[in-house]
């Protein structure tokens, strides 16, 4: 959580102001104040706006342009004028397209002030400042009439107020209001119509993001069973957005083909319904479990439906056959369709997975309100249900991210930790578990430990662990909420962490384990076993296929100069963005341009040691070095045995020139190089440095192509 306030400081100008931001340092666990420039909040908003991602979507841009040209030409051929309204203009590119397409008048509105000011400059720089009327407010605040915001109602609406869920940005309300107050009855809308698709699938891999599995020992015997509260919980109805094309097909079994479930007629002057239900009878394509619904949409840009833009994953994309024959054979099939991060696909988990036989009929209940969708399923012939939007009732889904839930289910990872515990714990062991919601630490009680103490400072995480304790009748386990409540620390034989904390975002945020350990280290027995023993941060220079577009400059886009926008985002990113950000890299393919290198090694037995490291990475493969990927390897026992290493990075050894296979249940660190160049493996290098200050919780990275 970030809180902002302004303080007067001793500047030469007594009216000058500094902005202080309060942030939670995930390594120290402390809230800290950082001094920023007065307009930091502005720069942060601009840096996070992600307009560039949309504008790098060439297909999107070209189809909007084509639809505008077609519509305006149609109106003129019909003897009508074209009065265009652009809602949420952003950079102003759609308004400028309308001008170039011959619109008689163009009105644009933008409520996000930094973007509105930028659009004003861009329109002027492209010679259209006098041709476009820019209204700096929400469309729902616009008034029509003489002397008001708009002189007349528009007969063409062009807008992009869609998101991964189609309606999550309030599209229904925006369109309905526009029809009622801003548009003529015969108005043409771009896009004109949307169709939402669903495909029911079975996927044990994806289910791992939604439900906990049993915890078993190395022999396969059950150690911990899930409490009834989790088993009976319907989970969260909320969307799980992801790049579905990157979800391995081998991990999915289609229960149904993709089917249309809702149509949204943006042109309907009566408006669209905010709440709808559609119960579809479907015959299963194979035997399996209806675990989830894969979700995407397509839009008809024109009235006739000749210009169509699809957000389908590659296997269901209408242009897949055409695109796959025109691409370099080295490009994986899942990467040939247009890439979008602003319009991804989505997964919705069915509250209770439904077991089906081949060709068995079942009901898929699709529902939406003004902003979101949810689903349920039951066998055909059963009593019809009124499906309400479900919510978590067990604390698991409301406490942990989907990545963390998936991580808790990783059997290979869990077995490495359990191997350490099984080999070192006996009936005299006293274990202190220092992780948020660690079921592995809890399992120590079932492995024969004399007693287990779970450090759980967060209320919901504590509730969850307590439910596992009661379900599994773990009488030797106690929960402690504060470190100073711990007693007889010299009797503790094991300090265990996975490590995971609710505040963790980047892989090394788990170093908070070292901070907590250092607070009690002097009171511990010198023979105490600490797990993990140490950690190393690794990095590899990569060539991203698409991820770099979220930061890459636009320059000229469809003939319009957007360099003013580039400069604004560049300035704001330098002031507000971190050098390294967190991304789930399994969704964003990249090729390794060199072997991984070690940047930093940290021992938790001697955590408070400052370190500074630097070096040079020799590029070994031709390509565009547009990013550095970073991760942490946790060393469980201090040995060099690969079986004692738990990685948050590649799941297979890196081969230079090949695509990296990333752990799907954590986010890795990413540094996107601002000005990537095509690199020659014979002369190109990356210079790097890292500084680690554990007491202040600082890890500073620096990377530079040389």
User: Roughly how many Å is the radius of gyration?
Assistant: 28 Å
| Overall structural domain count | 5
Q: How big a fraction of the residues is strand? A: 25-35%
Number of helices: 16
- Give the C-level CATH assignment of the largest domain: Mainly Beta
- Given the helix and strand composition, which structural class is it? alpha+beta
Helix proportion range: 10-25%
How far apart are the termini? 37 Å
CATH topology of the largest domain: Hnrnp arginine n-methyltransferase1
Question: Uncertain segments of ≥5 residues (pLDDT<50)?
Answer: 1-20
Mean of pLDDT = 90
Please tell me the CATH architecture of the largest domain by its name: Distorted Sandwich
Overall strand count: 39
CATH homologous superfamily caption of the largest domain? Hnrnp arginine n-methyltransferase1
Shape: globular
- Summarize the biggest pleated sheet: 7 strands, antiparallel
């Amino acid at each position: 959580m970030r809180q902002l306030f302004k303080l007067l400081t001793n500047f030469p100008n007594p009216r000058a102001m500094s902005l202080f931001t309060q942030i939670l340092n995930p390594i120290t666990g402390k809230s800290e104040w950082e001094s920023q420039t007065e307009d930091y909040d502005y720069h942060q908003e601009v840096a996070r706006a992600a307009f560039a991602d949309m504008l790098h979507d060439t297909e999107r841009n070209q189809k909007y342009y084509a639809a505008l040209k077609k519509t305006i030409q149609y109106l003129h051929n019909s003897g009508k004028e074209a009065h265009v309204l652009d809602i949420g203009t952003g950079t102003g590119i759609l308004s400028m397209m309308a001008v170039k397409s011959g619109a008689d008048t163009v009105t644009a509105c933008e409520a996000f002030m930094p973007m509105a000011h930028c659009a004003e400059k861009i329109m002027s720089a492209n010679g259209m400042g006098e041709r476009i009327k820019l209204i700096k407010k929400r469309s729902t605040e616009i008034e029509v009439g003489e002397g008001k915001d708009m002189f007349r109602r528009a007969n063409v609406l062009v807008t992009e107020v869609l998101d991964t869920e189609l309606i999550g940005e309030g599209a229904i309300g925006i369109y309905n209001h526009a029809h009622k107050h801003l548009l003529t009855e015969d108005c043409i809308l771009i896009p004109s119509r949307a169709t939402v698709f669903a495909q029911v699938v079975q996927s044990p891999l994806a289910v791992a993001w939604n439900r906990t599995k049993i915890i078993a020992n190395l022999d396969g015997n059950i150690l911990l069973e899930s409490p009834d509260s989790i088993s009976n919980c319907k989970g969260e109805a909320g969307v799980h957005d992801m790049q579905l094309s990157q979800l391995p097909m081998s991990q999915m079994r289609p229960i149904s083909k993709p089917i249309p479930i809702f149509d949204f007629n943006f042109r309907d002057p009566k408006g669209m319904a905010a709440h709808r239900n559609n119960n579809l009878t479907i015959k299963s394509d194979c035997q399996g479990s209806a675990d989830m619904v894969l979700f995407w949409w397509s839009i008809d840009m024109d009235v006739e439906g000749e210009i169509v833009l699809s957000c389908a994953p590659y296997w269901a994309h209408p242009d897949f056959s055409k695109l796959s024959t025109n691409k370099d054979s080295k490009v994986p099939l899942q990467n040939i369709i247009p890439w979008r991060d602003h319009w991804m696909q989505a997964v919705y988990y069915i509250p209770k997975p439904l077991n089906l036989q081949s060709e068995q009929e079942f009901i898929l209940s699709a529902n939406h309100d003004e902003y979101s969708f949810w689903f349920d399923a039951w066998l055909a012939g059963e009593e019809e249900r009124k499906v309400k939007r479900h919510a978590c009732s067990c604390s698991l889904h409301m406490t942990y991210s989907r990545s963390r839930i998936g991580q808790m289910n990783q059997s290979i990872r869990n077995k490495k930790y359990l191997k350490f515990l099984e080999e070192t714990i006996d009936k005299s062991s006293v274990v202190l578990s220092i992780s948020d919601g660690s079921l592995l630490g809890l399992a120590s009680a079932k492995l024969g430990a004399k007693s287990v103490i779970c450090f759980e400072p967060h209320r919901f995480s504590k509730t969850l662990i307590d439910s596992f304790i009661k379900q599994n009748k773990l009488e030797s386990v106690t929960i402690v909420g504060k470190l100073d409540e711990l007693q007889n620390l010299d009797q503790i034989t094991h300090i265990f962490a996975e490590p995971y904390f609710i505040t963790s975002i980047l892989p090394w945020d788990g170093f908070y384990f070292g901070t907590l350990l250092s607070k009690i280290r002097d009171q511990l027995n010198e023979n105490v076993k600490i797990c993990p023993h140490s950690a190393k941060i690794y990095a590899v220079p990569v060539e991203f296929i698409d991820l770099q577009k979220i930061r890459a400059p636009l320059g000229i886009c469809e003939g319009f100069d957007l360099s003013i926008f580039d400069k604004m985002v560049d300035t704001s990113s330098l002031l507000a963005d971190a050098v390294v950000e967190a991304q789930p890299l399994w969704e964003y393919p990249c090729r390794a341009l060199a072997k991984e290198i070690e940047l930093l090694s940290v021992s938790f037995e001697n955590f408070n040691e400052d370190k500074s490291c630097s070096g040079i990475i020799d590029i070994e493969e031709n390509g565009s070095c547009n990013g550095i990927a970073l991760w942490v390897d946790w060393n469980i026992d201090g040995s060099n045995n690969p079986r004692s290493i738990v990685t948050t990075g590649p799941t297979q050894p890196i081969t230079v020139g090949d695509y990296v296979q990333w752990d799907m249940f954590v986010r890795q660190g990413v540094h996107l190089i601002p000005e990537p160049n095509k690199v020659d493996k014979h002369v190109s290098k990356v210079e790097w440095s890292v500084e680690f200050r554990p007491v202040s919780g600082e890890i500073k990275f620096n990377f530079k192509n040389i």
